Each structure stands twice: as structure tokens, then as C-alpha cells.
């Protein structure tokens, strides 16, 4: 049995929490590294998080029934760890002991029968049921804010939440899928595996490795996020081109809904109407609990090559990436990082953008593909990054990769040292990208400044990279780093985020390429989607979740309870 406990706030496990002195030492190093980028502004003393035994959680409104008691818990640790996701604001709230919406209890189903019994009880008692995978949502997807009070700054900017709280729920249960973590079956002929939804990245990869196989879906949250969470949020992983989102790997899905089992056939492809798998992908727990899925797997790649290419200007790099995305070469990695991000991740000196390019195959050598890709880069003014700046291309690529993998842990230190650090992401077609980038960057830079403390004006940093690229457009991913206004961080970020989301939607982007909608993106999602589609979604939910218990508030307003 796994007895490691997750930290009650932020990222990782209790046994990984550094001491205050260790946090202080890391913070001092980070402050020195970031000073050239952020200016001379003081980043402040390191603060300590509010400890678990000092939390004051609201009393549970409902208790687990006796028939489910053996799979349910309601201690402070379990309620706090399931009260928040992992957005910057969530980490700040957890750090400060502000758990405003803890679930009343947390259930750990052992099998589908437990899930069915839980949903039956929740329907009968009108208690909200919130599926919980790894809790790495960055959009308020797992927060049991069933009355719509989550303070994201979203309200008032496009308005969406009129019906919230119309029919009060009697409580909220977090349904933690972590016990459903097995690879159940492997089909080596069709190269697919049946995996339970609660398996987190390392769990499922370790089990697949026994067969010499891999799913090769590596979101940055890989360590803690789960297959069910990936499908429910349409997560995007390792591949920068072609197979980007998890649904590209899904062969069939099985979910328990309040109206019964939703299971699709295993098929390599199907033109039979609206896809039952695609409908569950991105359903964010609003339709049912995904319990398992058949996913396409592959042998581990044996041919791999990567390179770093420098560009004087980010937009020159973008033009090159467009050519690469339209070349049919399909690089596995094609991440363009602007000069600011290259500097903060120690992959550059701030004078140039960096393209991290990679090819891999289980079957054939990839040198030729890389040669042609590098030729395209040269045609667009790129330089394989040896020489100037003193770092080889490989060095720059590994620096960036190291920073990428360590980022989830660093965020906790940033909060402790008073550094605001958060991201937003989108996708846009190529012909609109340059203007889009200019407008969004200008609006967000101004917002960062306008909410900064007077001494910190001009010290904030906005950077951009491409996480995924398509023949018709990139998925730009923006990172904000700025001195935080201590104890006002949530409001400070909400103000910046509001401007960012408004700008993204106004200039034609999507409110999210892979971070999902959750509760936080609702106002902008409502503006983006067609009204008849929203009606169809409401109708579908009403048909299978007539009491509206499934994760109320994500994707659509809570349904009015007919009872
Ligand atoms: C540091 C960091 C890095 C990240 N990097 C990436 C990235 O590279 N790519 C990316 O796509 N995302 C990324 N994310 C966002 C997040 O990890 C993804 O949204 C992920 O898919 C969530 O998976 P999870 O298991 O943690 O789900 P949770 O956070 O537990 O849940 C997310 C949503 O899915 C629902 N859900 C979860 N499990 C199920 C289930 N079994 N059945 C039905 N509904 C369910 C929940 O109710 C909720 O609405 C990152 C987040 C962080 C904090």
C-alpha cells in the first residue's frame, strides 16, 4: 500500500517539503538568477506555509453513509488536499491555509461498483460528486465550489454564472480515483492497452514498461496527473505536432454516469456519428466518472535526435516553425521559446529565441529528417546554437528541459518568496499570429504593471513559447513572472488573468488549448462556444445526470434540480 501522503498545499509529497532554511537558500539563488530579468526589486523574505494542524476548515455538511463508510474519509488532510487544484492562486490559497470549499468527505472507490454506489447516493441526497484524478487542474476543475463563489476575478467579464446556486446542494464529495491505477490488459497485436483512469503518469508508464511499451503522453504535470484526468481535460502531452492531445491516443472509453455505463467499442477509427469518446474527452467530470480506457501504445523509441536553433527574433523563429509544421516532417518536439524565457530557464542569455527541435522513431533513423529540418531553419535565418553565447545547442536544450521538469516544484518556492508566477495558453491560426502576439503581449504587460506595487512597476516579465504547432497555427503559451503583492496575490493575478483572457478571446484565440475550462475559464468559454452547442451540452447532461450532481459549475451552469 502506498503510504506517501501528498502535501496539503502545492506540489508533491509531505516527505519532499524542504525546511524553511532550504526554501530560503533556493529562493536566494533564484532571486540572484532572476535579478537581471526582473530588475533590482526586492523579492522579499521567505514565508512559511500555514501548517496542517493550524487549518480551520468549515464543518462537513454531510457525512458518508454507513454503506460507503469504509471507502470514505473526512479528516483535515484529506479534505484540504482535495479542496484545491494547482493553479498559482490555488497554491497561494493552500499556502495561506485558505481552503474555502473543502469537500465534505473524500471517497476512494476500489472498483466501478463503488463508483455506482457513490453516484446513486449523491443523486438521492443531492450531493455534488466531483471526480478527482491527480488534482493538478489549473482551472478550478476539482474545487468543490458548488455555489459559484470561487474568486478568480472571472465574474463581471462576460458574465456566465447566473444560475449558480439556484438549487443548493446538500454537500460535495470528492471522488478520488487513485485506487484504480492498474494496466488491466495489453494487446500487443493492435498495440493498445486497457488502463484504469486513476493511474498517474509514472504508474502507468512503469506498468507499460514491463511490456516494452509506452503511452508517451508527457504533460508537465506527468508525475501526479492521471489518465482519467487527461481524458476529462483533453490534456496535451509530449508530441509537439500531429498527436498532441490525449484523445488522439484513445481507442475506447468507459465511464459510470448517473444513468448507467457509457462504454464505446474498441475501434481504430469510426465514422458512426458524434463520437462517444470525443464527447467524454473534455467532459471535465460533468457527465460521469471515467473509469478506464483503451489507449494506443507503442514501443519505446530507439532513434532520437534533438537540436537547438537560435533566432534573432521570436517572429523569425515563428515563421520557421510554420514552415516546419507545414513541411510534413512532423518533429516530435518543436518548441519555440522567446528570448525572455530562454534567459529565465538558463537556455540562453536573453539575446535570442531558441527553437528546441527533436525527432524520434521506434522504427527508422531520424537523422535525415533532422537534416532537412535544420536546412529549413537555416533558410529562415536560424543558427544551430553553437558558438555565440558559449552554450552548445544540446546544452541549451537540456537546460530548458531541466527547467521544464522542475517547474512544478519551483512554483511552491516562488509563492514562499513573493514571486507571482503563472501561465496562460491558447491557439491561433498562423495568419493572425503576429498581430495576436503583439496585442496580447501589450495588453498583458500593461496589466502586469498596472497591478504591481509602486516599487515593482516595470519589474514584471511576460514570455512566450509554442507548446504545440499545427500546419495551420501554433499553440502559444505565456508565462508571467512578477513581484507579488503579498497577501493580495490572488486578486493581483485575477486582474492580470482577466486582461489576458479578454485579449485572447478578442483577438481570435481559444480560451484554452489544453488547460481545460473548469470554473475559472467559464465566462470566456461561454463567449467562445456557439449557443446551440451550449444548449446541446445542457440537454446531454440533463439526460444522463438529471439531478445535476456531476461536478456542477464546470462547462455549464449547475442544472436546476427538478426534485
Ligand atoms: C505544473 C503543471 C503543469 C501542467 N502541465 C500540463 C501539460 O503539459 N499539459 C496539459 O494538458 N495540462 C497540464 N497541466 C494541467 C493539468 O495537469 C491537466 O489538466 C491534467 O489533465 C489534469 O489531470 P488530473 O488527473 O490531475 O485531473 P484533476 O485535476 O484531478 O481533474 C481535472 C478535471 O478532470 C475531471 N476528472 C479527473 N479525473 C476524472 C475521471 N476519472 N473521470 C471524469 N472526470 C475526471 C475533474 O473533475 C476535473 O474537472 C499542468 C498543471 C500543472 C499544475
Can you put this structure into words, describing what you see?
- The protein is built from 15 helices and 18 strands.
- It is of the alpha+beta class and 563 residues long.
- It folds into 3 domains: 14-126 and 138-172, 2-Layer Sandwich (Uridine Diphospho-n-acetylenolpyruvylglucosamine Reductase, domain 2); 183-299, Uridine Diphospho-n-acetylenolpyruvylglucosamine Reductase, domain 3; 303-506, FAD-linked oxidase, cap domain/gating helix (Vanillyl-alcohol Oxidase, Chain A, domain 3).
- The strands form 5 sheets. It has a 5-stranded antiparallel sheet. A 4-stranded mixed sheet has the order 1-2-4-3, with helices on one face. Strands 13-14-12-15 form a 4-stranded antiparallel sheet, sandwiched between helices.
- The chain is globular, with a radius of gyration of 23 Å.
- Flavin-adenine dinucleotide binds at residues 85-86, 130-138, 141-142, 177, 197, 219-221, 225-226, 228-230, 232-233, 235-236, 284-285, 289-290, 407-408, 514-516, 551, 554.
SSE order and pairing:
Elements: H1 20-38, E1 72-73, H2 76-81, H3 88-95, E2 105-107, H4 112-125, E3 128-132, E4 172-176, E5 183-187, E6 192-196, H5 201-209, E7 213-214, H6 227-233, E8 250-257, E9 260-263, H7 276-280, E10 289-296, E11 298-299, E12 303-311, H8 314-325, E13 333-337, H9 339-344, E14 353-361, H10 367-379, E15 383-384, H11 393-417, E16 419-425, H12 433-450, E17 461-470, E18 473-483, H13 489-506, H14 522-528, H15 531-544
Parallel strand pairs: 2-4, 3-4
Antiparallel strand pairs: 1-2, 5-6, 6-10, 7-11, 8-9, 8-10, 12-14, 12-15, 13-14, 16-18, 17-18
Helix pairs in contact: 1-11, 3-11, 3-13, 8-10, 12-13
Flavin-adenine dinucleotide binds next to strand 3, helix 6, strand 10 and helix 11.
Amino acid at each position: 500500500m502506498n503510504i506517501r501522503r501528498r502535501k496539503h498545499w502545492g506540489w508533491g509529497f509531505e516527505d519532499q517539503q524542504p525546511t524553511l532554511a532550504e526554501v530560503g537558500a533556493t529562493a536566494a539563488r533564484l532571486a540572484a538568477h532572476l535579478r537581471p530579468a526582473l530588475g533590482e526589486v526586492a523579492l522579499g523574505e521567505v514565508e512559511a506555509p500555514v501548517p496542517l494542524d493550524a487549518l480551520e476548515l468549515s464543518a462537513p455538511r454531510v457525512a458518508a453513509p454507513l454503506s460507503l463508510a469504509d471507502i470514505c474519509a473526512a479528516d483535515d488532510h484529506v479534505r484540504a488536499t482535495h479542496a484545491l487544484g494547482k493553479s498559482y492562486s490555488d497554491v497561494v490559497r493552500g499556502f495561506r491555509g485558505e481552503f474555502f470549499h473543502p469537500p465534505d468527505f473524500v471517497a476512494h472507490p476500489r472498483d466501478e461498483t463503488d463508483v455506482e454506489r457513490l453516484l446513486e447516493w449523491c443523486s438521492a441526497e443531492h450531493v455534488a460528486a466531483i471526480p478527482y484524478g491527480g488534482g493538478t487542474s489549473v482551472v478550478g476543475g476539482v474545487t468543490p465550489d458548488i455555489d459559484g463563489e470561487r474568486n478568480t476575478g472571472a465574474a463581471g467579464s462576460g458574465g456566465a454564472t447566473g444560475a449558480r446556486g439556484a438549487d443548493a446542494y446538500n454537500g460535495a464529495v470528492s471522488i478520488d480515483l487513485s485506487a484504480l491505477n492498474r494496466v488491466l490488459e495489453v494487446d500487443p497485436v493492435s498495440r493498445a492497452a486497457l488502463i484504469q483512469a486513476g493511474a498517474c503518469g509514472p504508474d502507468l508508464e512503469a506498468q507499460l514498461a514491463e511490456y516494452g511499451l509506452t503511452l508517451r503522453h508527457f504533460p508537465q504535470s506527468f508525475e501526479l496527473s492521471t489518465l482519467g484526468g487527461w481524458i476529462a481535460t483533453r490534456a496535451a502531452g509530449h508530441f509537439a505536432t500531429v498527436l498532441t492531445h490525449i484523445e488522439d491516443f484513445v481507442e475506447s472509453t468507459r465511464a459510470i454516469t448517473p444513468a448507467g455505463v457509457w462504454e464505446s467499442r474498441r475501434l481504430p477509427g469510426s465514422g458512426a456519428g458524434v463520437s462517444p469518446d470525443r464527447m467524454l474527452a473534455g467532459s471535465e467530470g460533468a457527465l460521469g466518472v471515467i473509469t478506464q480506457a483503451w489507449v494506443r501504445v507503442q514501443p519505446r523509441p530507439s532513434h532520437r535526435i534533438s537540436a537547438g536553433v537560435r533566432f534573432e527574433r521570436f517572429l523569425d523563429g515563428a515563421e520557421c516553425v510554420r514552415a516546419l509544421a507545414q513541411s510534413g516532417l512532423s518533429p516530435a518536439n518543436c518548441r519555440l521559446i522567446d528570448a525572455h524565457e530562454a534567459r529565465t530557464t538558463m537556455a540562453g542569455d536573453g539575446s535570442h529565441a531558441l527553437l528546441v527541435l527533436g525527432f524520434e522513431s521506434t522504427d527508422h533513423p531520424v537523422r535525415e529528417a533532422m537534416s532537412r529540418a535544420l536546412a529549413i531553419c537555416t533558410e529562415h535565418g536560424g543558427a544551430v546554437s553553437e558558438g555565440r553565447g558559449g552554450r552548445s545547442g544540446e546544452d541549451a536544450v537540456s537546460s530548458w528541459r531541466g527547467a521544464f521538469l522542475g517547474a512544478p516544484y519551483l512554483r511552491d518556492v516562488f509563492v514562499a518568496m513573493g514571486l507571482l508566477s503563472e501561465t496562460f495558453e491558447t491557439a491561433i491560426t498562423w495568419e493572425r499570429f503576429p498581430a495576436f502576439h503583439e496585442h496580447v503581449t501589450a495588453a498583458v504587460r500593461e496589466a502586469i504593471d498596472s497591478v504591481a506595487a509602486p516599487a515593482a512597476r516595470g519589474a514584471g516579465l511576460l514570455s512566450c513559447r509554442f507548446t504545440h504547432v499545427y500546419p495551420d497555427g501554433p499553440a502559444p503559451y505565456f508565462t508571467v513572472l512578477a513581484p507579488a503583492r503579498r497577501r493580495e496575490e490572488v486578486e493581483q493575478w485575477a486582474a492580470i488573468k482577466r486582461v489576458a483572457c479578454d485579449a485572447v478571446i478578442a483577438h481570435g484565440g481559444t480560451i484554452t488549448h489544453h488547460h481545460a475550462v473548469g470554473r475559472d475559464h467559464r465566462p470566456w468559454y461561454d463567449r467562445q462556444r456557439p449557443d446551440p452547442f451550449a444548449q446541446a451540452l445542457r440537454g446531454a447532461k440533463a439526460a444522463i445526470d438529471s439531478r445535476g450532481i456531476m461536478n456542477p459549475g464546470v462547462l455549464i451552469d449547475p442544472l436546476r434540480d427538478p426534485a
